[in-house]
Fold these 3 entries.
Entry 1:
Amino acid sequence: MDPASHVILGQTVLSALDRQGGSRFGPGGGAAATLAALAPDVDCVLMRRWDVYLRWHEVATHSIAGALLTGISVALIVRLAVRASRLPHLIVAGGVGALSHLVLDAGSGARLGLLWPFAEARYPLPLVAMADPWLIALLSTGAVVVWWRRDRPAAARQMLVAVALFAALKGTLYAGARSSFTEQQGPAAGARMFEARWGFFTQWLVHERRGDELHTWSVDGRRGTVTRLLSWRVLPDTPLTSRSRALATVRNLHRVHAFTFAVDAGARGDHRIVRWSDIRFCRQPAPGTIDCGLWFGGVYDRDGEPKTLVMQVGNWIQTRTVE
């Protein structure tokens, strides 16, 4: 989810727990909640290796244990900066902010390993898209109302009720989308994943693998309509794509993505490039073509030996030596 939404929700939950006429959390409490609401995304330091970042982003600091640890860390930092603060109050504020981060990410469909490192189970709940404009508008409006109202704790509680009603409505539409898709396309024959479609209040994307084919559909939770957006046939491995599965970039991709496919670009001068992606990152401008925002793979020499690991994020290309 976007940073503004994280900050607003963290502050709203803290205000809802507060009391009128005086802060229950004392000096520094608001700062602790604000910083802790952003703190789980400290794993962005891994972005210098995008494949590693994607592998760990939905566990570690995005588990309950990891988020609470980041909240406590923030509390300790704020305690050093705000001498009049009290550490127990800061820890509570930091914990509230950090856990609110997980609530938003889980509600936006992130496959969080909430019980990591004790369990590998993932808990996606795709009610809204990442940086969902509808939720941002609701939270922003609510933040203005809470700031303007004299009784901020009461206003914050009312805002949380409004967010809960919004989530209930989206949940109802999501259930309708799942039901309509299953009725028209049948039970899942392979991997299947729903995620809210950005900018559309009633629509969800459905990614699925059926045998050697990958598909992305759009389903409307109110109308029940299903539209195919992408269809891609997964070709059998070539000797080189088979070997590329051992590359660190490709292993990390496969650890957390279920709709992967490879493209052997063939010979380019004295080298060959093998790239992998997941249809969640792709669109289909025309039948038989595919355009993906993320690619992971490697460069091989003419003898088939791996020379360089390659990650492409849009037009940004990262490389590192073979590990």
Entry 2:
Amino acid sequence: MQAKQPTSQWVPDILVEKNRPDEDVLDEVYLLFAESDPFLPIIHFVDHATMGPEALVGLGLGGKVEKWISRHRVRPYKRQSTGNFRPSAWTTFLGRADAHGDWLNYFEKELETQPFRDVLARWAPRFAHEVGAFLFHGLIRTAHAVRALDHKDTPARRGELARGLALWAIGIKTDPPDPVNEPPRDLNVATELLGYAKAGAVALIQRPNVPRVHLVTGPMAYHMILHHLEPADHGTALASFANTHARVVGDFEIKKPGTLSHPIPSFDDQELDALVAQSDAHPIKLTEAALRAFDRTKDELFLKAAGKAHSLHSLRSLLGIVKALVSRRVA
């Protein structure tokens, strides 16, 4: 790959949206981690072992997944169940860790008998009032599973979608609000999502850390499932993003000029190999999401944000994750 190509030509050479190489490696990963603990020990942060590989495949790096996943452990996990889960009373089981097994069992059974698109279209709008649950990771894990299913519908991928939806469910702390009005017909939902991602990109460029990565990857995750949902459903999600991104949207015009001096990475083979060499999935997911956003906007802010992928690892970032989980804020 030539690093000196015009910027607009780099992304199509990297992103793979059709006929992705080594696609089947995802089924191996999903089966391997099907019963693994969804949370890391000690800090109880969400495990990214299944999300990183799907982003790598999206970057055309599926051949690197086996090496990357070898640095991640499968950790035994016992599903917690209340024993009295009722889908008709689903709101009473939101935000409950002790119902995680109930949600998993329910979604697994639903996805065994129904098209995954129907299950997603029914439940994503019910959860969309808290797109930021678990620092957006319920949404993000769901979205990566959906994109994998868009490429190939297999039992392993349906199982991963069940795990994404179940994670999202137990991260939600509030009941759904009254129905939100449908977005105006002249409002482009995809453009709105890209706008939130852009505001997140500026915040990330100014101060790179892991929590701020999700201000980019969160909206871009919803962007991945957008085409499966009805237009009337997007009002709730957009209202939720308006809340999670309020501070960075407010600071956007003030902080954007400070991004002018930040460099754009080369995105050559050496740069991509450095992503795979890290065991953390955040740099990989950030790069894939930012390149996808650039591909749709041609705004170099997203390339500059991707350039911060190697600046995320520090004690300060770890403390930022903990603080964000406690305060439920990432800005």
Entry 3:
Amino acid sequence: MIQHKKCTGVLVFNDAGEIALQLRAAHDDSFPSHWDFSAGGGIDLGEDEMVSAIRELKEELGIEADVQFVTNKNYAYQAWDPTVTRDADLWIYKARHNGPFNPDPNEVEEARFFKLKEIEDMFASKTKFHPEFASAWEEGVIARAAAL
């Protein structure tokens, strides 16, 4: 079965150029305990993509920040349920914030800043990442966003 979704992913950078990642809650029903974008999620029916990104920052990290559009990508991957292929239209934004975060424990186990090299090392050591973040990383989207 193919499941289509429209979603946002937000990359939060601090003044040192580090990126905040969230560790998805261990009880999440999709990719639990996987590192992911700083914030993100589904775009509500009729909701503007940028409004969704700002909403997700508030809901998941408890912060308010201006967001800047980075890119729009389409990713297809096996969902957490192996009988489902997810076809995701993903709008990626970036924001600047130095923390602290007040993560929603229903969605986020932890949120903290990493140097890009640390994330590269995490990939090399087979740390679990959400497929959308992993795809964006592999395509260089994260590095390009950091350079903007």
